[in-house]
């Protein structure tokens, strides 16, 4: 085979090797006779390589194939137009690239992502689509391949098959989209995908829910257009219903729901709601819909669970956004948001002191994000003060972290509207640090401090507009690789 130029003879010999490869002894014989280099040598677009590919992939000799530059020969075969041949080719690529970063990079350098996306876009042969989606799923966890797949139109191509009758194909596409989604936050033309994902939130399949919520969380991250589209498609109600289904009939509150909190669906679902409730034209609509669709009680219930911090971070941000809507403040109070936020703040502060690390918190949760969850709600300031929080907020005025000082000053400023609270604040010695903050180079800190220090001046601006305290909690991109490092 290596020396012959007669395609007829080579084809016959390839057929013989193909037959031998169906048996274990035949596989060993091909390998020990140096058959892998010969088979790789024969891989070329003009030659019928189908039998050769089967022999290669049947042998447990992936390293030998890589050493013979097999991948560089196989990727160009994706230009073939025979669906059955392409199915074998993509199956071979999946076997060679699985759990091997070097192979993934070779596929990238050989133009593999573009060819694979083209197959997903232009073919309807189910086996080919399934094998191709498997390759893309493997490549989608590679940081280098991920943007290449997205830029080639991978999100749109995969979305075409989310309504396919094959559950296996749909699941492969969903996992791949979930892996790619954190690199696709700025992609355009995803309207249809967003609509389909919202509809899939009604599924009872936990894998479908996990993927759909993760994708929506990322695609709504810092993308106002996508946020508005999801709200228009009923995404808020769908996300809340998905969360409700994880908590329904869980009467043994804390223990039963803890398992649901740690599921992969809870974090991205709450993150998505946080994104939808802030910084886009329909944010206020989303804030109202959370209340209308009975989302506030389940969200607050999640906050009371043992602290799985990524979920807590998302919930605190969501509560902060919801509190910007006046109609939500009473439901938040009635659901017990304030004591749970205060307890969370106290625990965060205690943990921070115990760890003796400045502004470092488990899983990246910053102290100021916990504090901000307690601000911007003047109706509830009496309850906040009654929970003995004033000494803590005064103590936080001395924090080395600028944002912690800013939001703490804002909370004290609002609490000071009540005469009794103002006396408690003064008794705790807050005047001195607030006077120092008047000279801060941070305009937000200086402005909030002045409202307290010059309290004899008109305070028509109070209660403070939430924006005085600073920007919304940043949207959070969800990276599924920390849970699923390899498909």
TrEMBL record:
GO CC, alphabetical: cell-cell junction; membrane
SUPFAM superfamilies cross-referenced by the UniProt entry: ARM repeat
Residue windows of the ARM repeats: 69-111, 111-154, 188-234, 294-337, 388-430
GO MF, one annotated term: cadherin binding
Gene Ontology biological process terms, A to Z: cell adhesion
Domain of life: Eukaryota
Recorded family membership: Belongs to the beta-catenin family.
Record PANTHER family: ARMADILLO SEGMENT POLARITY PROTEIN
Name of the protein this chain belongs to: Junction plakoglobin
């Amino acid at each position: 085979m290596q020396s012959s130029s007669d395609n007829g003879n080579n084809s016959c010999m390839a057929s013989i090797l193909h037959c031998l490869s169906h048996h274990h002894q035949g596989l060993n014989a091909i390998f020990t006779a140096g058959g892998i280099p010969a088979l790789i040598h024969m891989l070329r677009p003009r030659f019928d390589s189908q039998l050769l590919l089967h022999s290669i992939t049947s042998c447990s000799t992936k390293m030998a194939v890589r050493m013979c530059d097999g991948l560089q020969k196989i990727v160009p075969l994706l230009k073939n137009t025979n669906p059955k041949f392409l199915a074998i080719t993509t199956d071979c690529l999946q076997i060679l690239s699985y759990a091997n970063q070097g192979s993934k990079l070779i596929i990238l350098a050989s133009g593999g992502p573009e060819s694979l996306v083209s197959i997903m876009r232009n073919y309807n042969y189910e086996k080919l689509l399934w094998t191709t989606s498997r390759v893309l799923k493997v490549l989608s966890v590679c940081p280098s391949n991920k943007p290449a797949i997205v830029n080639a139109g991978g999100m749109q191509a995969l979305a075409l098959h989310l309504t396919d009758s094959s559950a296996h194909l749909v699941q492969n596409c969903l996992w791949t989209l979930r892996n790619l989604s954190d690199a696709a936050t700025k992609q355009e033309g995803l309207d249809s995908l967003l609509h389909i994902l919202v509809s899939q939130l009604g599924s009872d399949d936990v894998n479908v829910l996990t993927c759909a919520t993760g994708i929506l969380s990322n695609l709504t991250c810092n993308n106002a257009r996508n946020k508005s589209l999801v709200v228009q498609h009923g995404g808020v109600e769908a996300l809340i219903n998905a969360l409700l289904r994880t908590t329904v009939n869980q009467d043994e509150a804390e223990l039963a729901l803890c398992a649901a909190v740690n599921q992969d669906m809870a974090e991205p679902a709450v993150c998505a709601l946080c994104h939808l409730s802030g910084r886009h034209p329909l944010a206020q609509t989303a804030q109202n819909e959370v209340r209308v669709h009975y989302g506030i009680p389940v969200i607050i219930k999640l906050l009371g669970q043992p602290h799985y911090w990524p979920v807590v971070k998302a919930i605190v941000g969501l509560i902060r956004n919801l509190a910007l809507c006046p109609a939500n403040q009473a439901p938040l109070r009635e659901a017990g948001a304030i004591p749970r936020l205060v307890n969370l703040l106290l625990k965060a502060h205690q943990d921070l002191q115990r760890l003796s690390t400045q502004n470092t918190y488990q899983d990246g949760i910053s102290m100021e994000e916990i504090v901000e969850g307690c601000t911007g709600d003047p109706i509830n300031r009496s309850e906040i003060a009654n929970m003995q929080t004033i000494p803590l907020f005064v103590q936080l005025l001395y924090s080395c972290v600028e944002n912690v000082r800013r939001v703490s000053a804002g909370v004290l400023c609002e609490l000071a509207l009540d005469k009794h609270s103002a006396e408690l604040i003064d008794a705790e010695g807050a005047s001195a640090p607030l006077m120092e903050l008047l000279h801060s180079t941070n305009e937000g800190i200086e402005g909030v401090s002045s409202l307290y220090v010059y309290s004899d001046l008109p305070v028509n601006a109070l209660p403070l507009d939430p924006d005085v305290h600073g920007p919304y909690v940043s949207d959070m991109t969800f990276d599924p690789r920390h849970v699923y490092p390899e498909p």
